[in-house]
Automatic annotation (TrEMBL):
Encoding gene (name): LOC118428672
Family: Belongs to the mesothelin family.
Source species of the chain: Branchiostoma floridae (Florida lancelet)
Domain of life: Eukaryota
One Gene Ontology cellular component: cell surface
Keyword terms, alphabetized: Cell adhesion, Glycoprotein, Membrane, Signal
Signal peptide: 1-18
GO biological process: cell-matrix adhesion
Pfam families, sorted: Mesothelin
Compartmental location: Membrane
UniProt protein name: Otoancorin-like
Keyword ATP-binding: no
Amino acid sequence: MRSTVLFGLLIATGLVVAVPREKRQLGNARPSRTPPVRPTAPAVPAELKDGIAAAFGDASALDHSSVAKFINSQASDSDIVRALKGDIEISAISNDNFKMIPGNLMTKLNDAEFEKITAAQIVAWLKRPNNQYDIRQLDELSTRVSTEKFLEVLTAMKGTAEAGNAARPTPGLSADVQDFLVRKYVEANVNASCADMATNLQKVSFMPRGMTVENLRKLRENSDQNCGQVAEAVLDINKNGKRYCMMAADARKEVCAFARSAAGDQFGTVENLGKLPPFTDCLTAQDLESASADTLIDLYDDGFFLNVVELPEGGNDIVRRKLESSDRMPKGADLITFFNNVTLVEKLGPAAEVIGDMIGDLSQLEVPAMKKMKRTISGSRVCNAGETEASTKAPSKEEKELDRKLLQAQMEDPSAVTADTLNSLAGSLAEMAPSEIENLNPAAVVDAISTLADEDFSFGEARALIEKYKSGESVSGALSAAQVSSLGKLAAKLPVDELDQMSDADIRSSISTFASAKADMSPAQAKKIAKKARNGNLLDQLGSGEINSFFDALPLNEIESITDDIAADVANGDYSKYSSLPMTKAQAKSVFGVIESGLSGGLDRDTVIELGNAIAGAGDDALDLISNDDFAEVATAMTEQADFGSKMIRKMAKRFKDEIITSFDALTQTDLDTIPADVIPEMTAEDLDAVPAALCSAVTQKVAGSERLFDTQEIRQQKHATNALRCRGKETSGDLGESDVEELGNLICGAEDAVLGRVDASGARTALENLQNCPTKCLSEDRKTKIREVFGKMTADAEPAQIDVDSIAAIGLNAYVLPDATIEGIPNTVVAEVLSMVDDIDVVKEEVLEQMDSSCGIDRTAMYNKIVEATTGSSSARRKRSTTVYTCTQVQDLGNAAVSLTEAELGAMTSAEFTNCLETLGGLTGWSTGQLETMRDKVFSDIAAADTLTTDQVFKLGKIATAFTTSHLSALDLSDIDAVYNIARHNGYSAAQTEAAFTRYLGSSAVSGITTEHLVGLSNFLGGMTAAQIGMIDNTAFLDSVADIGNLTGFSSDQFTALKDKAISASGAVSTWSAATVQNIGTVAAGLSEAELTALTDAQVPELTPGAIGLIPTSTFANGFSVAHINLLSMEQAQAVTNDQYFALSTEQKNAVDLAQYGSDDVSDAPPRSGVSAVHACVVLVFSAAFIRLL
């Protein structure tokens, strides 16, 4: 018997019925447009078509592009062709061959042939990654498979997924497919009883990533509303198998909320709370505050904390207070004895952090108890490292304090510490002070190097350890490959000069070690490794994996020199060498250009997947190579493999609207699923407003959840937010409660200020939490006022002394908008519990915003002062009366808030503490000129004069060096390019400073002798070169480093012109530059003359980087760019146009800039440019800050 229901269950496909919604009438209907001709299905030979058409009922199925292309690719005697001809049964096709069949071919088979497909074949097809992009075919497949067969499929997939490790199933399905299958399953069981649903969930229990927020909510709705049995089943399925780790953070929170809702008033009982772990994600500090001490102790005794990944903000302190207040807990010396029992320590789980505060001094514990406490706090009790958001967090202040106590207990004399002791302190060694590292025994370092290699040392600390290791190994020259392998992560800190000493063969032998540490390397290090690893034919090396991880450090001209070889690979259909290579955008542009020219038959899904990272080089014209038949799945594959710019995404959105989606007012859930998440924010608000009423909520959630939402213009975000409110029936009026704000999600960032004013008390917390996701930008006073009002609603306008941890955690990074008096009045104990939020502040971006717009209004002074007070017990008032003397440990615990230390406090640090803390202080930005000058003077008084600072000390200066005078910079030892880079990469130098620094670096050497790695390492100090000196740079070194030079912005117009001339000298006339070359040179293009800009081709203009656009002189921009040129700009390029450039343009040019920035659908609603306060200015500021971070 055939079922028309997914898996043969109870209802039809589960697709949303197309119920038209009432929508606004558009004033001006857009004229219809004839779409361009798209690639069509290749012709299938007549003799083959006649033989297999019967399998489909007729030959129309062969008109589908992917079907026809696949059939044509098969040998005439292949088992697939033979089966379609009826020579053998469909079931006789091997699983490996069957999985290659396009979904469109399989679902177009007639019923008789479709029935012959086996469960094993379906499993093989589903698990092929390439097939998981075609949701539409999955949906059709789900409606045609019989009940019995799909149960076989589920059973087989479940068995295979859990065979290796039932605790962590490996279903072999993408998150989207798991989401789809679970959703269909839940919808199909809409009428199942509570008990049956709880039992039936086992069938999909192997797909934890399918337990999305949306599916969990459907589950709650479909099971007698918050059925307790279903809630418990969800908990049991996903915690006993540790599937918790594989679920998204918001889904884990939803599981917890489900359990809370199902338990009702009984949620806070020991029995119900005890069922939660590890799903404690929805617990609040208030939940713990409401629980009695006896309840918490009972939970502790039952092992509740053992399976908790983390407690809510402030939870540890609440647990401590509850335990301390209970007569059931021992006191005094008995408490110390209690916690010297390692089992009792372990049972506290993450709350073990409170032990220090409970006993007063951790050093009272025995070493085994402290080590157990360390493993308990930092170890992953539930999930493997990296599986949860919690596991990626840096150590807490309490954990660092424990590390220091352990070090004090076992490293009283660092020089006498053995390797065994170092090994026993694994996980704590990164807290060693620089002075302790310098005194370690070299032999002990050698014997414990594998332990030390796994620690997260700073660059300066790692360099010191490497020197100890070399001393212990008696290395006087270059390191061997075996020694580099022993260094592990420390290899990322090997100086460029040390890498240069190694033989090329040893570099190649060490490539896997270097690759694993590459993320922590400087650009100069990566360049050096790539250069030394090169040997012979590049394609041969790529094939053997010798240099793959450092492909993006290779110069573009080297890649462009092998285009014939790449073309030969493409002609053979071999893209394997390029699929996993890390590439710069320019490299990808070059590689894809060669591949594109050799493509035959258009661009299909499998080709996109095989191209891997190279697809990032595709221009929007590549979309014309995709047939409409395949467009949805190819677009999805493209956006999942690369981050495209607005031009590509906007064209995808337009193609979906014009040619793929028949009618938005008849849009189905499956249609919505086929629109890539990256694309949907660029769908017009008018089109999305037309979807059926039953689907508008799903549309809102997909738009709000897109990672590209914030890459759209603010006017588009505002329109999407308006749509979301209209969907809720609250477009212009009505209070916004928790469910409203929850559905609005990140769209609240683009909503008008008035929308925040309608958030009621029930939605306030969620609104504040969502506002933390908004991009860093200048906030208007009205916006800040609205955020304060929302905070007031959440706290019921509580006095500052009554503000709790949950409230501060909710407002998070936006706490600076609160009145200073409010911030000052918040209890220190509350602030101390949420210090982690300061680490999330993007100080560099905020610093640039403030420099470019003094009215930006991001002032964290009061917040930072409060953090200092909460951390050190020293209030701002007291700090004004007397100077607090800080230790390095205290400074490090402050994180970003350390920039609030006064000049007197910085100056009062002892010489030893300041010296140990130099790298920490130099690594922070956001210092005032006075603070930097104070630290500069302290360097000279406590460490050494400028002319006697060692290169290691220069390295540690970091940002502090920006306060050095030209005389100081002229005296520094700048012979170590790593040290040079660590001070030169900071912004804030004047032209005179960079001139002094570059002159000191150069000395009596010739400019022509500067190597690639040194050009890269000089960074901002290149701004100290004269135009004549720029002309002397070796052409080869320039070409090898221009991609990095093109990230710099601190050049004068004359210098940019000289750099452009050098680019012409090195790579030919501008007219010969490829699109990839224009992209590669970055800001160097800002030196193009009016005539050169005018002569740029249609292929070159789109590749000018936004950074270059904003640096072109005003008159050059206005006279060099025609309207036709400006029409070629992307949104990113257009929004990089500065106000000075914009207002110097003609009306036609301005209109063209606006159109490029906002698009035809939003340009008429765009805010006018009227100075730095415009929306545009904020976008430019954010872009500029992000760009400068690259330096």
